[in-house]
Amino acid sequence: MRESKSMSETATAPVLTAKDFATDQEVRWCPGCGDYSILAQVQKVMPTLGIPRENIVIISGIGCSSRFPYYMNTYGMHSIHGRATAIASGLKASRPELSVWIVSGDGDSLSIGGNHTIHLLRRNFDVNLLVFNNQIYGLTKGQYSPTSEENKVTKSTPFGSIDHPFNPLALAMGADASFVARTMDRDPKHLQAMLLRTNQHKGASFLEIYQNCNIFNDGAFEVFTEKGSKAQETLFLEQGKPLLFGAGSDKGIKLDGFTPKVVNLADGYSADDLWIHDEQDIYKAQILTRIFDDPKVEGHLPRPFGVFYENDRPCYEEIMALQIEDAKARKTADLDALLKGKETWTIV
Amino acid sequence: MARKQEVLQDVVIKFAGDSGDGMQLTGTQFTNNTALLGIDLSTFPDFPAEIRAPIGTIPGVSGFQLRFSSDRVFTPGDACDVLVAMNAAALKANLGALKKGGKIIVNTDGFDSKNLRLANYPDGENPLENGSLENYEVIRIDVTKMTREALKEFQMGMKEKDRAKNMFVLGFLYWLYGRDMSNTTDFLKEKFGKKPDILDSNMKVLQAGYNYGDTTEAFAITYKVEKAKMPSGTYRSVMGNQSLAYGLIAAAQVSGLPMFLGTYPITPASDILHELSRHKNFGIRTFQAEDEIAAITSAIGASYGGALGVTTTSGPGMALKAEAMGLAVMLEVPLVIINVQRGGPSTGLPTKTEQSDLLQAYYGRNGECPMPVISASTPADCFEAVYEAVRISVQHMTPVIFLSDGYIANGAEPWKFPATADLPPIHVKFKTELGHGEEKLQPYLRDEKLARPWAVPGTAGLEHRIGGLEKQNITGNISYDPENHQLMVKIRQEKVDKIAEYIPEQKIDSGAAKGKVLVLGWGSTFGAIKSAVSELIAAGHEVSHAHLRYVRPFPKNLGEILKSFDTVLVPEINNGQLIKILRDVYLVDAKPYNKIMGVPITKTELVEEIRKYL
């Protein structure tokens, strides 16, 4: 049914730029929204991936972030609340050659669509799930979300939220995600690097993007994004490198048994004493995702950013296709034989 | 031993026992055996919702009713000629449906004091001994004892041995109706080929049951039912969910579309998944999703990518899928949503039949959200009806709801299966490039059917975005314009209404094109209505029967047909749903006949009802 034309044509297609991925639709996010930065980085990264534009599909659910597909000149679907992950599963299962991206928010993928998110991850479809986490419901004008901090005063919690928030990356690890990473809207370089890694990973990639909602939850991630505090409060993970942070990388994280501890290099510690990051180590990745301290609490650990975990395991759509190929090789598809069945009788 | 053989025209047997007694298997085997002889038949399995309800109790009784006849039959029969009762509870639950003078074949071992107590017989009362069965012919067999006796050489536990009891009964019935047993011995060989002990024990007990009839002098007569006079051709026996699965496979093959089934297990629809998952060699992808919502939305994703998206469920699942159906209506992608109806509301009666989701199919979504609705009327009819559902879905670019029910799903009947070469074509058009003068794809530019183009990802130059927000006519851009919204609502409605131009006109199934009473049905009431109407026509009455496959939109000529009769009677297994729509659409003063007991309408009660209007 589909012609190979598109693939062969694009082999000689002109090199595309970010502009080629923009649409004629007016972008309607609030001025100053973190989504603008994410859109810009995605549009910058897309032309570098070597994927024909027609093979890229962006599927979103409902929420501010879910307007995303309208602004990307690829195939796209703005679906219903929480279900983008399930729609993407069906699409990827039947069209494994497509590059499928899911754009979602904390409400969409962790509240109403929480179930589909964990199942997408455990099945390991080769798709990219971008979760724009702003810790608030923006589109419905300011109720708390499943990632909002406890005691948060919002329109629906005038006396403070009594909900305990999700730790999204720990949840992803619990669902056996094969790629788990975090980045932020205010660090374009890191965001681009993470988008590239997300795309490179074969399997379900979970990328949490801290995104500022300047209308309903302004400054939620300020301590991680602003110059004055960023160095102290963030820990950028790099494969094979020691966990260093602080002004001039003067501090590090050391594992004391299973417990991460902050040490000052000035106290005689060297890089050799520190935790060396290994993305393949599932046990350490789980400890890393659990570093989720409230920056307001004394003695807290810095928040990690980067790739926490990556693991290669077979993708659902591949195994599904293999089973079908195998079944075809074993038994010819003979519709007449199927309809006839084993036992028949004839009336003359 | 030479015996007298009596020829019968029509026999109804009910196999009843504990849900662990293997009555469904016994019934199915006897059914297949009957079918292979060219005898017409209709079945009605009736089992509890519990997998293993308490042993020996009435809620734990599982039944399988089979009617076979040398005449054409369209229902499994209102009352039984023969009742096989494996225990006291099975007798108590089914005696009411046995004809006066009917045969009861009882397993006497199932009538000990414990079984009698579990079946709630009063203390000291045993129906086999207190004369309460004197109006019936009771055949007493200690099946348990004879089974154990037949297996006395076998090195297996008593519990294992007792499992073969149903084979004894089956063997005995094969003898009683003069049958060859090879279909069952072949079946056992295939099923237990890798477990020689179980195979041998089952074969031995089956033969023991046959020999018991043959050698016991007490049984003087055997019976025979001749071949039915059916249209010539080659037949097989088929169950509703099975023929539905075949219809989907055939439609996928003929249309050239790869099929994707997104589904979540639910009674009584799960067998469609089971059947389809076995046929991966046809390129079928079956996806057991995490819930009903993921089941339909994954199918929407597949359809968006150019596959034939299908989802199967029953009432509670339909309720969960409602929002996603709305999305499919807005996206205008093909999708077949199959509802094998069961008793509701809520969890309702999972294993019992009902037709109570018609209004849900019509109206059960937010907003103005029209979808075509197609229904199947018998097990074999599922094939053709679902094939039509696929055709309409892909040619009109619309989700389609397909209604079956528990009675159709689990029932079996002879099927004159088609040859692949005779299946009508299903033409599928993908948009592969921009049209003349088109600068970019107009996703909502329509053809003469008002269908929009199916432009799938991977097609260069046709990149576009669609979604659940209201869209501008033609361009598909988001639009909140009031005039545009009204226009789009009207277009989506007209698109569904227009399908009436692409479906056959309504036919009268039995009787004249005008007269006193028209009995109008849809779905699984077909057999009962056909039987009742045929009987009344034979008695010289002016009655006709029409049966709807296309429930939305209705065939173009339906209004004319309704006007041609003094009375329109609408029997339904619900509280009156089709009749509401008919009254709304045609302003016709139709009369309802409703039965909401989880069981089919019988011919007898329907004849009585129709007579009121003659």
UniProtKB/TrEMBL annotation, chain B:
All residue ranges annotated as the Pyruvate flavodoxin/ferredoxin oxidoreductase pyrimidine binding domain in the record: 258-472
Keyword annotations: Oxidoreductase
- Any Pfam family hit: POR
Ranges where the Pyruvate:ferredoxin oxidoreductase core domain occurs: 517-583
Q: Where is the Pyruvate/ketoisovalerate oxidoreductase catalytic domain?
A: 20-211
Coiled-coil region: none
Protein's UniProt keywords contain Transmembrane helix: no
SUPFAM superfamilies for the chain? Pyruvate-ferredoxin oxidoreductase, PFOR, domain III, Thiamin diphosphate-binding fold (THDP-binding), TK C-terminal domain-like
Q: Where is the signal peptide?
A: none
- Protein's recorded name: 2-oxoacid:acceptor oxidoreductase subunit alpha
Query: Which organism is this protein's natural source?
Result: Terrimonas ginsenosidimutans
